[in-house]
Amino acid sequence: MGIGLLYLQPVGYADVTESWIKPAGVRATVALGGILFQAVPLLGVAAAWIVTQHHLLGAYALASLAGIALNLVPFVRLDGYWLLCHLLDQQNLRQRSLEHLRYLADLGQPWTANRLLYLDGRSGQMFTRDLHSGAAVGGHP
Hints:
2 domains, 65% helix, two-stranded antiparallel ribbon, mainly alpha
């Protein structure tokens, strides 16, 4: 366990390398650990906000909830990505999806029998494009 920087923000981390030898369901549970770690303080702050109605607590609770939602997006290599990989029992899902899209582009085919790789690759491309577009215009997509 330790502390590091991710996207210029301090984060806690744990070495979960040993989880790779476990079944996919156990790995998915491990991936949810980060979400649970974020949710614990959120529950306390949300309860305090309900009791006190202090606007700063409400803003913190909303920001924490937004952070959890962003963490669950499967198109960035955060907890949501790893959760999806483990639930589908697919390693390197993003890399395989993008390779599959390049393969289809070379063939000139827009669709394929492997819809999972196609949908993940296209969704990841759109999310990344929109994220960069939003940052380019002042942070508002």
